[in-house]
Amino acid sequence: MKYDSVHMGRSSLDLYSNDVGTPFVDITSFAAYVGGSPTNISVGGKRLGLNTVALTALGADPVGDFIMAFLEKEGVETKFIPRKPGNRTSAVVLGIEPPNKFPLVYYRDNCADIELTIDDVLAAPVQDCRVFQFAGTNLCKEPSRSATFFAAELARKAGVEVVFDIDFRPDQWHDPRAFGVMARAIMPMVDIVLGTEDEINAAMLMDPAQIHLTHSQVSDTKVTGDVDASIAHLLTLGPKALMQKRGAEGLRIHLADEKIDVPGFPVEVYNILGAGDAFAAGFLCGYLKGKSWYEAGRLATACGAIVVTKHGCANFMPTWDELMAFIDSHGGI
Q1: Does this model's pTM top 0.90?
Q2: What is the CATH number of the domain that holds 226?
């Protein structure tokens, strides 16, 4: 295979508050970074030594130029990223009030990445890679939704491993139950799933007892449910493994007949945004290097722990040497 991994989905200009701990209304300046879950993972994987491809879309605008220039500098393959005149490159604005308040605003009206089409997929190497990874936000609207289903079909047919980062963003959906419908529909084409407890419950969201929350409440509230029951149901739909991200507690890997607990690394939280994408990059790196589930999980939790102490996402992904130094300083794998 020419490429290790292809990462399909959103990209954005991330504006992160420089006034850490300051209420959003009192922020005076922001730092500009690159963001968007699959885009972040493509950068994280590249820094760890993988040959990665970003399959996103950018507007024909200066913000798109900003993202493209960063990815090219990082060495991520960008030649399959279409520019979409008439659509805008998306943006995110974030306040940082650790340890647990990170107000986030998406600017995704008329955004370019949701305009990824089946033709864009056909032009990309989703059949010429070892892993095809996509994000749940891809499924919220057309044409990105059908393009992602099509890409997963092509990848699966070619024997490529398909990895689904649940990436539940409530404010991108008209109804949280619609997210669950789409997530369950694509599961038969997925090999490995990554998600938090909330995201796993959202993917399995269909019990009427869980649907008393309004749209705005879901944006700010945990999606209730029995996560173990959700996981058991999810694994009957096709995936061979689910990575349950558990924050400071680390990772629980769910296989058909086994659970593997992987401890996390104790660090002081600075900014939680981007940690899950670093986790995914670390896991995919270990998985593609032939590491055991446990070892790949430790690489994942270490990458997440490193980025949770940083200001931004893609710009702060660790290199392989930085990852190894961090792990060694915390007792090793």
Answers
A1: yes
A2: 3.40.1190.20
